[in-house]
Amino acid sequence: MLICFQVVVLAAQEQATSDFTLVGDNAITSILIDKKDAKVVTIASNIFATDVYNITGKKPGVSTKDSRSETTIIAGTIGSNKLIDSMIAAGEIDVSVIEKQWERYSIQIVENPTSTIKKALVVVGSDRRGTAYGILELSRKIGVSPWEWWADVTPTKKESLSLTMEKEVSKSPSVKYRGVFLNDEDWGLQRWAALNFETETGDIGPKTYAKVFELLLRLRANTIWPAMHSSTKPFYSYPENKFVADDYAIVIGSSHAEPMLSNINTEWKHDEMGEYRYDTNSETIKRLFTKRVKETAKLEGVYTTGMRGEHDSPMIVGEDDTDAQVHLLERVITDQRAILAKETKKDPSSIPQAFVPYKEVLNYYQSGLELPEDITLVWTDDNYGYIRQLSNPQEQKRAGGAGVYYHTSYWGRPHDYLWLNSTNPVLMWEEMSKAFELQSRNIWILNCGDIKPHEYNIELFLDMAWNMEDFNESSSVKQHTKNWASREFGETFATEITNVLFENNRLAYIRRPEFMAWSQVEPVTKEGETELTQFHYGDEVTERIDSFKSLINATEEIYNNIPMYRKDAFYQLVYYPVIGASKLNQKWLYSFKNQFTAKQGRQSANAFSVLSEEAYNRIRKETDYYNTMLKNGKWNHIMTMAPRFLPVFAKPATFSVANNENASLGLALEGYQMEVNDKVINSYADVLPVFNRYTESTYFIDVFVKGNGTVNWEAKPKSDWIRLSENKGTLNSDNLEKRIWVSIDWSKVPQGENKKEAPLGHDFQLIPPSFKVNSAIDFIVEGEITSIGVSVYNPNLEALNNYKGFVEDKGFVSIHAENFTRKKEGKEANWKLFESMGYTNKVITALPRTSTPLVDLEEIKANSPVLEYDFYTFNFGEVDVNIQAVPTHAPFAGIGVRCAIAIDDATPVFVNFETKGRSKEWKQNVLKNASKQTVKQVVNKAGKHTLKIWMVDPGVLIDQVLIDLGGWKKSYAFPKETVKK
């Protein structure tokens, strides 16, 4: 968890014995290290000294000689710092808890440690990184953000600076190797380094990597997979890179496509080396592996074993059968380990190695590939945030353990998301906590693209890897965000910023910004037709537009009030990502409105075209500001608003509507794609959907101008129980359309017959007269009247008088999974809510994930946790029960992604959300962040019923339910809940 440490600024006479003065009225602490200690200790000490300087204007000295300062920071590693070792020997400090541990530190105040030092703040590390983390923990304590340089989080200025603290001992990191993969860097990080930051190299070189490594140290990470696209020269082609990494104590690894730390994309030269095929050219390939091991043997690294083809493709094998591929891959690994043994003179089991079963390699592993026990299995997500597989109970016992390679940036099918960080952080927490629970704790790597604008998710990912105990609940993520916002921008703005970010997360979960063109890649397709409805269920397009309007307003208001010295940081960490996502959405949403209204001849179509273009131009403006104006061009070339120049980033084509006719009034009703047409006898589009007393329905009528001129309109309900949000107005070039909301004053509606139950088996739109009341609204323009029918369903059903639950409306029952009527605990598991994910912003899951799947129907009914939802229908017969879940994958064979459902006392029916490979169903699931499955059930009568959902597999995440009795129309999301009011 992100912790806000207390920073105390006191005059010397006010300081208690637990205070340690860093900068006082006439004193500046010094930092004492040992020259024999690791280089990273010097680096971390100088970073901290600079942090103090940036706050106070006074810089502590870093020295290897005995300090003459009365207060000194003594920092060092056990066994590498003589003074600290002597203090340990004398019993002045106790390091028994951290000694010989991985990356741990202790910080404590020691009085009179030497004859010349009256008080010392002693930072002791169990190893070189532990010492560095301990020193940089002091930077956190004085209020310096890890993003001080990378996001320009300028520290708050102070004249004096003291720390108040007790002895602190860090825990062992939750995950051993924690880091990031710089990937798809072509449009941001590489261009920025080559053209701006490191022009002397013209590439991502040692200068750039030094800043990346500093960030990793500040974030308590220890591993990097370097950038590896062909736009960037290979990491080891710059000899200094590996030495800079070692200086910063950063472990080098490589991706699934880069065996043995070799960058195949750019290091494999076909004209010199032949074809990259192990079955025909293994000796040449082994020479490349040997060369890399020789130059890295004395450095910290994690060697990726196995092999894939060039450019992230399957490896070429002469025989096109799985057995041949598996045997060849086993041979590759055997040869790689022989090279490691020969060149390092070590037992391969003592050398960190990883095997990444990514894409087709997962199939090879599942087909029986034999992997040495000491190699770490690094499981991967499906590129869209859902982990494909995790270690089963037997694999969890492997000596090499397991890890995860996870994406918040991706180039590939079904669509890229390379520009913004659109991965929901709570989803990332859910998947990584699942991985942690199932013992994937050895390597965690985040594919974070260009680092920017992935800053928050990077920190969350690495904070979880550092201490997963701080993230036991889904709500922990929101608290982490709030603490992060408080650290970066002050407590005053923390709640507002958290709300903005979580609303942005919610909208991105429903549809990522980069997916808003309904296009796909590989091959690239043109923009498609949106699935968002504009005329059912309140108009999904307009609802999304309005959500982004509110989000933009809230973000801009915070920006205007943020202190000047933090505006640049806010721009990078919040403003640009939120405004960019909002405007990319609005660009497409307004184009959808343009297309829809143009077909109805509305003059507003032209206005929507302008709004779409304005959204596009706003993205250009903000991106240009980011690159050229922000921090005087510090980040020039880092941000590209159109990576890969895909259709989603283009300016949409729009339609124009001529205005050469005289103005007239147009009407369009919710529930109908076409506008009202008085010239058509018995037009089907002149009656609103039926208003249901039990859900207190509301519907809209759009009044709009067609042609050129002004229209004065008036609306007169024919009954006093019809309520309108507006009943008159003027339409002209400045006010082209207006949405009128129609609701019902139920206290005034004549009530239907008093019956115990609803009538049986009727069509909801053809309600018997005794249950329906009809009226109309007259729209009047210059004496001409257009009548819109209004029908209300207002029976007096005794069964619903004190009923609490869901009711049928317009032929369906819509339910949010978290709003169960009752739940029953299971023998091993129970249902639990996860907050801030899913379409309803809450999902419900069965935990723990280690509980036993239940597949026998009798056992399910007896021992499985069950959710119950009471609902009432006015129809009966065979129905479709649609269950929407988060599209997770089965963690391993024997556990699936299933639940079981039944209505009333029917036999439970299994619902399976698992997908196979990269199927069409999987593609749609990840584009939509939803898996919808439908099963048949029978509602045997009109009246009260209960839907039951049992756990079959632990971990399945249920989001929404829609019981369709034949009335559900096309929509992207399920309609709003039909709860009895």
UniProtKB/TrEMBL annotation:
GO terms for molecular function: hydrolase activity. Residues 805-977 form the Gylcosyl hydrolase 115 C-terminal domain. It comes from the Bacteria. Keywords: Hydrolase. The keyword Disulfide bond does not apply. This is Glycosyl hydrolase family 115.
